[in-house]
Known about the structure:
Blueprint: H1 2-18, H2 22-43, H3 48-55, H4 57-80, H5 84-92, E1 97-101, E2 104-108, H6 110-128, H7 145-148, H8 150-164, H9 171-192, H10 199-226, H11 233-241, H12 254-274, H13 278-296, H14 301-318, H15 321-342, H16 350-356, H17 360-373, H18 384-393, H19 405-433, H20 436-439, H21 458-476, H22 484-498
Helix pairs in contact: 1-2, 1-8, 1-9, 2-6, 2-9, 4-6, 5-6, 5-10, 6-9, 8-9, 8-19, 9-22, 10-12, 10-13, 12-13, 12-14, 12-21, 14-15, 14-21, 16-17, 17-18, 17-19, 19-21, 19-22, 21-22
Amino acid sequence: xxxxxxxxxxxxxxxxxxxxxxxxxxxxxxxxxxxxxxxxxxxxxxxxxxxxxxxxxxxxxxxxxxxxxxxxxxxxxxxxxxxxxxxxxxxxxxxxxxxxxxxxxxxxxxxxxxxxxxxxxxxxxxxxxxxxxxxxxxxxxxxxxxxxxxxxxxxxxxxxxxxxxxxxxxxxxxxxxxxxxxxxxxxxxxxxxxxxxxxxxxxxxxxxxxxxxxxxxxxxxxxxxxxxxxxxxxxxxxxxxxxxxxxxxxxxxxxxxxxxxxxxxxxxxxxxxxxxxxxxxxxxxxxxxxxxxxxxxxxxxxxxxxxxxxxxxxxxxxxxxxxxxxxxxxxxxxxxxxxxxxxxxxxxxxxxxxxxxxxxxxxxxxxxxxxxxxxxxxxxxxxxxxxxxxxxxxxxxxxxxxxxxxxxxxxxxxxxxxxxxxxxxxxxxxxxxxxxxxxxxxxxxxxxxxxxxxxxxxxxxxxxxxxxxxxxxxxxxxxxxxxxxxxxxxxxxxxxxxxxxxx
Length: 503
């Protein structure tokens, strides 16, 4: 029953992404969110939190009323002040709250769920009142063939994941991923496509993003000085045995905190690259340095790789792509030489490499084994941890995912899911890179600010660089479509490339 409901909810999500009628799309979004809530209640009916609510009807009623009041208040706010929605998304986007569900701790983006629900309700109200939403101008380019495929591929990814619950070795985790991540994030994507991304909105979003990152950095610095974390017992125990101390600020995982800082630093660097005011450039450089110091306290290798990729993209777009590629080639060559001198690594001695990567090498090889066992459809949605323990490492092995997104996709959904994932990556890059040859000084002979006639292309450069950094982080960690930042960046990038560019 839950698998069938999941497929229906994924179908509603596909309608929200693909339907061209604005009123129907708003209806699909609301319907998908409501059905996801129903599906969660059915799936978790015997769990401790739901059982506690069933045993205390007054408490359940009070919580339901409070939830409706919050969502209704947000809907009124977003309907009256549309600019409040993207700002609220930026504020809520990074924060996950750890909750006990199904016998394990699940980190849920509860604030973001409320923002998405309020935004969906406000969107439906506007459509019922006849608001047609942002209309493209005559100067807007049409998406190319690959760019047009991005939204259908996103819809297909959600549907495939829902169908993969049927044969999953861990269907409960698959349902949770579908309802907590894919469906609400797809709704977020659809909602952000309706935002008018003019200079005022982008400026406000940037200011809020910077202030929030600084606050998180202050918390992280405090944790580093006091050697005390708010949560995550696994990290706390690990810190007791390491010579270094990792912080997570207001986040659950230091790697996710590091990813957040890396993306914000990338956006700040993009603004520095185009800003004309020297004093503003100095202040922004100081800001980037403070955030970089905060990133150091995470000791997240994947986050540093993401930051390098993002900054390299900014430099390539602003100044010279060929110079950046040459520099990266030199760095790769030096890295290969270092590993060769270290011995064993280039011979794929994973037993030696595994301790140096915190156990990730074994997770990767185990994921490849799982893919080889079931190469067509994989072990099913959300199945990696259970399949890895049952088929590879034993039930005592501590594992949640492969920490390498392509390997997780291949192990869970086979070659079908892997092909869909790779096609989505290609399509998303076509979207975000559309028109760059004439807009970005580093890619063409365009003027100092590009030839698009819409001012410095710093907004699109920042979105692409942040997305590239995020993509690198997911390859070396996890969480591509399970991260709302992916959907948000794709929506903003699409909106800036193809809709309302005259604004």
